[in-house]
Amino acid sequence: MEKIMNNDLVLEPSSPLKKLKSLLKQCYAFFYGNPPAIIGGLLLSIVLAGALFAPALATHNPEKRVARPHVAPNAEHIMGSTRSGRDVYSQVLHGGRKSLSVAISAGVIAMTLAVLVGVSSGYFGGKIDERLNFLTNVFLVFPQLPLLIVLAAFLGQVGSLVITILLGVTSWPWGARVIRAQTMAIRSKEFIISAEVMGESKWRIILVEILPNLVSIVFGGFLGAVLYAMGAEAGLGILGLGDATEVSWGSMLYWAQTSSALYTGAWWEMMVPAIALAITGGALALINMSIDQVSNPKLRTGPHMKLWRQLKKQADIRRGLR
Amino acid sequence: MSNLLEINNLCVDYVSPNGVARAVNNVSLSIAPGETLGIAGESGCGKSTLAFAISRLHKAPALISEGEIIYNGQDVLKMNNKQLRDFRWNDVSVVFQSAMNSLNPVITIGEQLTDVIMAHKKVSQKQADERAIELLNIVGIHGDRLGSFPHQLSGGMRQRVVIAIALALEPKLIIMDEPTTALDVVVEREILNELYDLKTKFGFSILFISHDLSLMGEIADRIGVMYAGNLIELGEAKEVFGKPQHPYTKGLIASFPTIHGPKERLYGIPGNPVNLLEIPQGCNFQARCGRCQDSCHQFEPSLKLTQKGHQVSCHLVEEVAAC
Amino acid sequence: MSFILRRFGFYFTAFLIAISFNFMLPRLMPGDPVEALFAAAQGRMDPAQMDAVREMYGFLDGNIFEQYLAYMKSVFTLDLGPSVLMFPVGVADVIAMALPWTMFLALGSLIVALIIGVSIGTYASYHRNGFFGQVVPPVLAFISNFPYIVTALLLFYVFGLKLDLLPLAYTYDPSLDPGFNWEFISSVAKHAVLPVGSMVLVGIATWVFNMRNAMINVLGEDYVTMAEAKGLSDMRVMSRYAGRNAILPVATAIAMAIGFSFAGSIMTEVVFNYQGLGNILLKGIVARDYPLIQAILLILVTAVLTANFIADLLYVWLDPRISN
Prior knowledge:
The complex is a heterotrimer. In chain A, helix 4 packs antiparallel against helix 10, helix 4 packs parallel to helix 12 and helix 5 packs antiparallel against helix 8. Chain A contains 13 helices and no strands. Chain A has a single domain, classed as MetI-like (MetI-like fold, Orthogonal Bundle). By secondary structure, chain A is mainly alpha-helical. Chain B is about 35% helix and about 25% strand. In chain B, about 45% of the residues are buried. Chain C folds into 2 domains: about 80 residues, no CATH class; about 200 residues, MetI-like fold, CATH 1.10.3720. Chain C has 13 helices and no strands. The chains are: A mainly alpha, B alpha/beta, C mainly alpha. Chains in contact: A-B, A-C, B-C. At the A-B interface, helix 13 of A face strand 1, strand 2, helix 1 and strand 4 of B.
């Protein structure tokens, strides 16, 4: 029935310039008429800009005592001050820098591992697949946060670099599993088989034919990994397992917790980093959700549905049904 | 003898992000009781769309925008939900292309037989089970299989199950959408023979959709040919097959190799199917037809009677007064 | 059947890996592991008890394999040693008190989130183009992806502190004694609202999306069209044909969600001072009670593995194609 409206992605190689143009076109199409994507994109840009330009935007040195403890938000300290008299606004900007760089780096590590494991598993199959898949499943089945907590506990207070590596090394399985499935699906498509028969080297096939078609799920997985890493950093931070001397959203929560900020009425010390985390997490999720919708055309609903409703109404009126 | 089903000026549109495509354009035809009407055409010509419209199975973004479908004096398109539910399967049942895909994989075939029986008739579960076993026997499957799941049956058996379900309420019309395309030739032959026996026994009409014109030539009473949403030829099977009038039908028949006679060169039909979002002015077939004249580029042709019962939609054909 | 056996084998292997990990942990730390372990004991344990712990850990003379076997033995006999933090209460007893609450929180919120999420997801798939399909999913996606800790903190602050609607800490009113009476049960329920609520908020989106996407895929299948062509009632088409099939991908997602749920429960317990394993874990970390920490990890892992296995069994029951 739907043969006429075949919106299947046509997976075929094309020139680099054409690819770039089509990428830009896809980006535009992605945002057009898609409020969640636009809102997510906007929020995320604000957060990233804040983190990136933290030195320029911050009003005070986040690590110095610049005010009396627990001052409520006012003109000079727009988000108030912490128990130790530090400016919360400057802290949240610099903290964002730290937390986001940890999260993004962890995401990069995780996705690199995921791609390596997933593509090898999916493309080479056989024994390699068996072993890698088993490894992936084992990692997946362990509850990761408790594992991280215990590791961190045994290693003592660790710096953010160690946290980044830990997070990256424990969150690759989710992506690996999806990438493996997708690689296997692509691998059985005819253009791969014909490339192999023509004698193209395996590496070339992987790089040129398979990877470009994985871009959207890899990117989606990357956003998911960043989201998870950010939350995990915050969680570890508030438990005191991160480096409490560096300014990050997690350590901000930790100091707020130890100073009983909520109970003493200095809600801003706790809520500002919490809301920063919330907004960033939510924005990432909206974008991720939109990517999912784009890759599965069935999930997409567009302006043409409105037209359909209009036409249906007209047809019903003609038939005397309304 | 009055017709079982009459389709008048049916139009079905698809609303897509790129525009509105007309998948079925102003098609009119009728089906008599007990006849086998075949509709042939290439993929995307609208034949399945036409067939599904009869039971109103289309969902957004498809839309039946114009026309009527008269069954037993009633327009199906104007029925309310209750009437439609009664009509479905009781009067018209459908056999889909792939039996594997049309059977629910997680419930037994027995349940898929009894649920339609119990939805339409007031019978007990036991009575429904008995009837289900009867139906399975009719299509040559042992009643033991009532508790089997679809994946436990072979391809041919699944197709038989689907036919058994189609017969469950003894409908007057069975729509078959490429019922044997997914099967190998041997099984196809078996199923078609059984089908013929059943038809003789129960007396239902069949609307047979296929791209396989030669198959249709063997089993249909009348054949209709569709191209790009239009019904371009309609007539007795022998006439359409033996003396095709429309250039497209001629092309289709010519592209079938025959086992008999000397080796002949095969001619296909050049070009690609029309993009329904960009239909040309005039005849839809002009890009691939070798013999266009001026009127072909300007005006859409419509069905004209050329001889007894044979209708063709082409500017090149002379109309003959209806006898 | 072989599917079930293979899955069990997998989980058992994973369990062994967890034990091995646990075995390695104290030996990973710099310095003499045994001394470090007892640094926190601060003289509260007498030499005999310290020896008992040594034995449990397998810190005997003998090579590493003998130590490994000794440790395995103590795990399988549930000899988890004395707790340093809660001395003289044994680790096993500490865990026994806290484990039920964590199971209640993690699994209870999972089930609630699942039921509500699947319903919303199903509804959103029919009304794909209306308010429910267009607005609700993105809003839920946004809210659900606040990190666990953030949602817990927000609920804690807004409903607990500011509005003072619900209790903020503990699993039940500490002045009450546990028992099957209304007072106790209602206290448990009241104390559970915020923690469970916060976990449900975080967990709900995955079910909404999983179910919605699964339904949309299934609704496009031929067998659903055929069910409609058969003139079956909407109810039957939606439940027995569409829903029954859409639930399968959702069921596979349950396994992953279990791990997340237990992880999230740790954070939630910390914020609400809920007396579950997560809470004890944190206290153990602060007090450097290594036997306790390791035991909790082992128990958590075991709980997750078991829950996963049960989820697999559920899937076999749901999908007749698997058991062949």
